[in-house]
Amino acid sequence: MGIDTDGRGTPRAGHARLGELCLRLTDRSGPLALGERGLRLVEFITSELRADRAPADLDDAFDELEEELLADGHSAGLGSYRTTPTPLTPGFQPLPVAGQGRPSLHVLACPRGHCGRVEAPDDDAPHPACRIFDQPLRTVPLR
Questions:
Q1: N or C: which end of the chain has fewer CB within 10 A?
Q2: Are the C-beta atoms of 14 and 113 separated by less than 8 Å?
Q3: Side-by-side strand order, sheet with 118-119
Q4: pLDDT tier for residue 84 given thresholds of 50, 70 and 90
Q5: Residue 45 and residue 17: Cα distance in Å, rounded?
Q6: Is residue 138 a contact partner of residue 108, using CB atoms and an 8 Å limit?
């Protein structure tokens, strides 16, 4: 069974490489170590997305960025590799339960719905930000 796409090859859960780029830009262990060309590609991609360009329209730029990441020693490129495959939900992470044994009633997700980044809320901290769009992640109620 294949991944459900929107007709342009983008998984319905969002653009997987955009989600991975977003996660890498927010990594607390340090900035994404790239050379000048790689940093220019990140700036190009983010500026185009902020100007409402569709992520799938930037696949060539994502390909170039992936090549730069691999050349700079990032062995996974923009891949989101796991030990347990999740073919129908690329980019989504397992959700932890909330305090006192109750499941989360909402999650935090991409502010524009372009990628599959999802995080559990932390009531003691401000919403994490999307570094692609310079906006806090949006609250999405679970149904």
A1: C
A2: yes
A3: 118-119, 106-109, 138-141
A4: very low
A5: 11
A6: yes
